[in-house]
Amino acid sequence: MRLLLVEDDDMIAETVLGAMRRAGYAIDWAADGRAAELSLGNGVYDLVLLDLGLPKKDGIDVLNAYRQSGGAAPVIILTARDAVDERIRGLDTGADDYLIKPFDLDELAARVRALSRRRTGQKQPVYAHGDLTLDPAAHEVTKNGAPLVLVPREFALLQALIEEPTRVFTKAELEEKLYGWGEEVGSNTIEVHVHSLRRKIGADQVVTVRGVGYRLKRC
């Protein structure tokens, strides 16, 4: 999943960005309403975390314009506006959830997971490939029925590969799936993640296509 955080407070933004990245999400950050509209116009986000009191354009106006343009990604409002009428206004404008500042980061992560499961109106599929299974909702991977412990980047890498097991992903495509704007990505970062993932799921499970990228082995 790729998230967009819209938040003008640098300290709050850095805290949320760090928490979501540790949870394995690629997340980008827009610091004002105009930047948010430009970002949302790309149509690449699976979920939006939206502050209301934004410079240049209020969050409610950003949300309204996004829904009016056909934007369908779930939106969680993150705001200090705790009046009931404000919450009603946000939900009526098209928000899917509402969290009052200050909020618990674990609760935010749980709400993100819950909305991601309901994104298509049904539970996310469990992916199976050979002796591997990956359950995005439960954030679990098994090999021959035995659970594997993957760190968030390893899990995100395996999910990208197992969702399209016949496709060869370039390094740039995998970097885009695993990292948000502004995150430092070393020249061999993907190779390091692939090496680490191979140690846990089997060296033959991830195939290197020389000069192109990576895919899962054919079953």
Quick summary:
The protein is 40% helix and 21% strand.
Draw up the topology in text.
Layout: E1 2-6, H1 10-22, E2 26-30, H2 33-40, E3 47-50, H3 59-68, E4 75-79, H4 84-93, E5 97-100, H5 105-117, E6 127-129, E7 132-135, E8 140-143, E9 146-148, H6 152-163, H7 171-178, H8 189-201, E10 206-209, E11 213-216
Parallel strand pairs: 1-2, 1-3, 3-4, 4-5
Antiparallel strand pairs: 6-7, 7-8, 8-9, 10-11
Helix pairs in contact: 2-3, 6-8
Keywords, separated by commas or semicolons:
five-stranded parallel beta sheet; alpha/beta; transcription; 219 residues; Rossmann fold; four-stranded antiparallel beta sheet; Arc Repressor Mutant, subunit A
How are helices and strands ordered from N to C?
A: EHEHEHEHEHEEEEHHHEE
Question: How much helical structure, as a percent, in the residues?
Answer: 25-40%
Overall morphology: elongated
End-to-end separation: 26 Å
Walk me through the structure.
This protein is an alpha/beta fold and 219 residues long. It has 8 helices and 11 strands. Helix 2 runs parallel beside helix 3. The mean pLDDT is 89.
